[in-house]
Every structure is written in structure tokens, then in C-alpha cells.
Amino acid sequence: MEERNHLSGFVWGMLGVLCFSLTLPATNVAVQYFNSTFVGLGRTIPASLLAVLFLIINKQPVPTKKQFRDLFIIAFGAVLIFPLLTTYAMADLPVSHGAVELALLPLATAFFAMIIANERPAFKFWVASSIASLSVIIYAFTLGLGTIHLADMALIISVIILGLSYAMGAKLAKEIGSWQTIAWSVIIGAPLFLIPVIRSIHAEEILAVPITGWVSFIYLAVISQFLAYVFWYKGLSVGGISKVSQLQYLQPFLMITFSFLFLNEVFNLYTVIIAVVTVSCVIIGKNAA
């Protein structure tokens, strides 16, 4: 029975990782046809309708006032800042480039989790974090021809803020449930984004978007912003957090692979090497934390 749970957990977890790994490629395609506000914030509107449906079907209670304060922090990072900044970055950067910088996310999450739990990070954590961060900075500096572009800064900032949201989400998930946390976060964000999204809509632009653009946007709204979290958290709850969470280390390499397969990006050995170095340091640092 235990082995069946582990297998089921890994299947659900892998589905979540696959869904998250296609987020940057889908964003890269969507920003070619839609403006960044529509792609970054507009995805929240359909996701919120799906979240409401899930909460009603499962008869979930309304969070407390204190829980809503935590949900606003989660929504700020996972629903507002991360989608907006990655959308901005993907208008200028290759997906494989973004995949390397997003590899720091587990480390950022572990850092904020320690702050929330009032724990002192181990020395090994700081060493591994420094090497991983330095690797990413050198990578961005090298490909930026001697400078770090604003798109790189946007991705790094998005990783830091999303790390805080993930850590807060992990804490709150123990109280209201895992997928419920992202569902309520999306619902909180949707009304705040409605006016900016409406203002960003231009009839000529919308009517001219091909099916590829709409498929990418729908993927971001339905899968990336909500269902991917449901799959991921389902896997963590069934298979165990410590074991299933290791799957997230595959994500940068899957992003690089998808960018090569679907976007015809050039396979860059330098990118893969930096990704291996970064992910190795992240694994060491996260385990040390």
C-alpha cells in the first residue's frame, strides 16, 4: 500500500513538474501576440473561475482573517509578481536562459522557510547558495555581452519573491490544505487585476491572434496558474514532501528540452553545464537547510 502511494505521488508530482516546465515556453509564445499585462495578469481571471468551481464542489470553508493576510502575501508573489516579471522577461530572453535562473527557486524557498521558522541556516547552505547564485550571475553576464539585462533582473527578482510566496504557502497549506492555498490566492488576485486586464485589451490585437497564441494563453490560465499546483500538491500529499519534491530539480532541464523541441532554440552546451552546476548547488543547499 505504501509503495502504491509513493508511485501515485510521483505520478502526480511529475505531472505538476511537466506542467510548470511548459510555463516559460507558453509565455514566450503568448507575448508574441498579446501585451504583457494581458498575459501576466489576464491568466488569473479564468484560473479564478476554475478555483471557485473546485472550492464549491469540495465544499471548502472560508479562511480566517489571519489566513487571508498570509494569502495576500502568496497572491502577491505567485499570482502578481511572478507572472508579470516572467512575461516581461520572456519577451527578450530565450526560454533556456530563463530556465537556468529559475533553478534558484527551491533555494529561495528554503531560505524564506528558515526565516519563517526562525531557524539559523547551516554554513553549507550559504556556501552552496553563493556558488549557485554566482553561477547564474556569471551566466547572465556572459550571455548579456558584459552586462546584466533588465530581463535577467526581472527573473531573479521574481524568483526571490516567489520563494517567499512558496514558503508562506507551505506554512498555510498545513492549515487549509495545499491546493486550497493556491485556489484562494488566485481568487484574491483576480478582482484586483480585472480593471488593468480590461484596459489592456485592444480589439484589433485580440482579433488578430492566431490559434497558437490562444492555446498558449489558455495553457497559462488553466494549467500553469492553477491545475499544475493541484497536481503538484496532490503528489506531495500522497507520496511525501521530502521524496516527491526532489522532482523539481528536473524542471530546468525539462524547460531547456522543451525550448529546443517546441521553439527551435539552439541547444547550448554552456547553458546545460551551468544548469547542472546550479541545480547541484541547489540540491546541496536545500538539503543543508
UniProtKB/TrEMBL annotation:
<feature type="transmembrane region" description="Helical">
    <location>
        <begin position="207"/>
        <end position="232"/>
    </location>
</feature>
<dbReference type="InterPro" id="IPR037185">
    <property type="entry name" value="EmrE-like"/>
</dbReference>
<dbReference type="InterPro" id="IPR000620">
    <property type="entry name" value="EamA_dom"/>
</dbReference>
<feature type="transmembrane region" description="Helical">
    <location>
        <begin position="70"/>
        <end position="91"/>
    </location>
</feature>
<feature type="domain" description="EamA">
    <location>
        <begin position="151"/>
        <end position="282"/>
    </location>
</feature>
<feature type="transmembrane region" description="Helical">
    <location>
        <begin position="7"/>
        <end position="26"/>
    </location>
</feature>
<keyword id="KW-0812">Transmembrane</keyword>
<dbReference type="InterPro" id="IPR050638">
    <property type="entry name" value="AA-Vitamin_Transporters"/>
</dbReference>
<feature type="transmembrane region" description="Helical">
    <location>
        <begin position="38"/>
        <end position="58"/>
    </location>
</feature>
<protein>
    <submittedName>
        <fullName>DMT family transporter</fullName>
    </submittedName>
</protein>
<feature type="transmembrane region" description="Helical">
    <location>
        <begin position="181"/>
        <end position="201"/>
    </location>
</feature>
<feature type="domain" description="EamA">
    <location>
        <begin position="8"/>
        <end position="139"/>
    </location>
</feature>
<keyword id="KW-0472">Membrane</keyword>
<feature type="transmembrane region" description="Helical">
    <location>
        <begin position="97"/>
        <end position="116"/>
    </location>
</feature>
<comment type="similarity">
    <text>Belongs to the EamA transporter family.</text>
</comment>
<dbReference type="Pfam" id="PF00892">
    <property type="entry name" value="EamA"/>
</dbReference>
<feature type="transmembrane region" description="Helical">
    <location>
        <begin position="148"/>
        <end position="169"/>
    </location>
</feature>
<feature type="transmembrane region" description="Helical">
    <location>
        <begin position="269"/>
        <end position="288"/>
    </location>
</feature>
<feature type="transmembrane region" description="Helical">
    <location>
        <begin position="123"/>
        <end position="142"/>
    </location>
</feature>
<keyword id="KW-1133">Transmembrane helix</keyword>
<feature type="transmembrane region" description="Helical">
    <location>
        <begin position="244"/>
        <end position="263"/>
    </location>
</feature>
